[in-house]
Amino acid sequence: MELFSGITYQSTRGGQIGIPASQAILQGLAKDGGLFMPNRIPTLDISLEQLGAMSYQETAYEVMKLFFTDYTEEELRSCIGKAYDEKFDTEEIAPLAKVGKDYFLELFHGSTIAFKDMALSILPYLLTMAAEKNQVEQEIVILTATSGDTGKAAMAGFADVPGTRIIVFYPEGGVSRFQELQMRTQKGKNTAVVAIHGNFDDAQTGVKRLFRDEEFQAEMAKKGFRFSSANSINIGRLVPQIVYYVYAYTRLLASGELTAGEEINVVVPTGNFGNILAAYFAKQMGLPIKKLICASNDNKVLYDFFATGSYDRNREFILTSSPSMDILISSNLERLIYVSTGCDAEKTGKLMMELNEKGCYTITPEMKEKLKDFWGGFADQEENRGEIKRVFDNYGYLMDTHTGVASAVYRKYVEASDDPTKSVIASTASPYKFSKSVMEAIGGNIEGKEDFQLIDEMSARSGISIPQAVEEIRHGKIRHSRKCDVDGMKAEVRDILE
Ligand SMILES: *Cc1c(COP(=O)(O)O)cnc(C)c1O
Most buried among 82, 99, 275, 486, by the most CB within 10 A? Predict the structure, then answer.
């Protein structure tokens, strides 16, 4: 008997087990509505010192080979090579900036200047490779709901990749003007963008419903289409995000900022809980991480969850200056819930059903005990503005509104804990992406000014040159103008594909 020694994936709700990585990536969401989790978390098999001498691409290979065990070395290296290339404006891919005593891990040097690029530059290659490996002949149709950044980053990743189509849904009025322009100017014959009358949760719930609609999938399959997801629930997005935490730590180790074995805290501005979950996985793999600091904006459902053990989405949805974190259902939290139950799919499924039916659930004290690596905090918009200004005035470092939330929450953490541990703050977007809020925070006069005027003023004030991605949008032509109601999403997909 031949034993498959690699990692396999199982649904957090128990409906599927023993799925190879490539199939989990192809499927996105499990058939029972659960999320795929590896059957175990592998540990790094080379030392952090050795990793410290490696490039981003080499580090990526060392991490991904442990999770995507049904891809050959050649396949994985090819995906990594195509993903992390000149699309990024720095060879380091994810550089660290030291600001005062803290380190900002800049995850916004890719083609859409936000952290989603880190995973979405590689997902199309992992996915098309997976289709090839599994003899899938249909065209892959990516359906994605976006709170602003995912949509653009996914389209940039998938644009004109043979054998794929991509349809992005975003909440009309729920993304910044700049984010909307970024999406609506997207090139590529295989891309489509639709504005939804509703908020992000409506868009995400609508996409999930399409994924669970077997009749519709069968209808589309006959026409040669197969749905897949690029949302952060796809394991093919989660794993590539582990890489930069390993990379950041090993850079700090190699440059002598850290001594061997020294722990760091990681601070993550959180929405759908994908980025911080990747940091948690990195810790499970053996990276010396002490606290995982989960930063929320006014939509502080996660802060309340970590404080009380109760998750409750029954509350007002607040539109903030950090729109990519305006989320009341953090999909990836399901994976952490699953871990905290001791990988009990039945318990996880029950809680998720409660969330679906009542909008809330409460975990047991034993489960809560398993989450003590996490510290939840939140910062409102005024605290956020104050923090952006404080850091800019004191250090000349200009951060975006999402990173501002993280930085403000980190200060609250230090005040509450007196913890002197060195900390890496995930910096998830370029300030140029949110020019209005950022300029307002640093005391600029924004009255009646257009985005691009503010962008020029920001450049003059900060001395940071304007990224290429911004210049492309300045002169881009609007290519997408579709709109629909949440109930009309299915019809819209049909129309786009036919
Ligand atoms: C998506 C996003 C976040 C939130 O990340 P999650 O993985 O969804 O928690 C934070 N900041 C920016 C700029 C983003 O685009």
Answer: 275
* Strand spans (E) along 366-475: 374-378, 423-427
Count CB-CB contacts under 10 A for residue 50: 12
Two tokens, residue 6 = 């690699």
Q: Give the residues across from 196 on adjacent strands.
A: 171, 484
273 Cβ below 6 A of ligand 1: yes
CA separation for the pair 143, 168 (Å, rounded): 6
Asked if 68 and 76 count as a contact pair (C-beta separation under 8 A), the reply is yes
Residue 405 CA to residue 275 CA, distance in Å, equals: 15
Domain made up of 96-113+236-466: CATH architecture: 3-Layer(aba) Sandwich (3.40)
Question: Who's near 157: CB < 8 A, 6+ residues apart?
Answer: 117, 120, 121, 122, 123, 124, 230
- C-alpha 181/C-alpha 478 separation (Å) is 8
State the pTM of this model: 0.93
pLDDT per residue over 69-116, tens digit each?
A: 999 999 999 999 999 999 999 999 999 999 999 999 999 999 999 999
Whether 95 and 89 have beta carbons less than 8 Å apart is answered as: no
- Please give the backbone phi and psi of residue 360, each rounded to the nearest 5 degrees, phi first: -155, 160
Query: For tokens 């503010």, what's the residue?
Result: 454
Q: What's the rounded Cα separation, in Å, for the pair 104 and 109?
A: 13
- What are the domain boundaries of the chain? 96-113+236-466
Say how many Å lie between the CA of residue 468 and the centre of ligand 1: 21
Question: What number does the ligand 1 atom closest to the CA of 270 have?
Answer: 9
In order along the chain (498 residues), what is the average pLDDT of each group of 10 residues? 75 97 92 95 97 98 98 97 95 98 97 94 95 93 87 92 94 88 94 95 91 93 91 92 98 98 98 97 98 98 98 95 92 97 98 97 98 98 98 98 98 98 98 95 93 95 93 92 96 95
Q: Is the CB of 429 under 6 A from ligand 1?
A: yes
The answer to whether the CB of 283 falls within 8 A of the CB of 351 is no
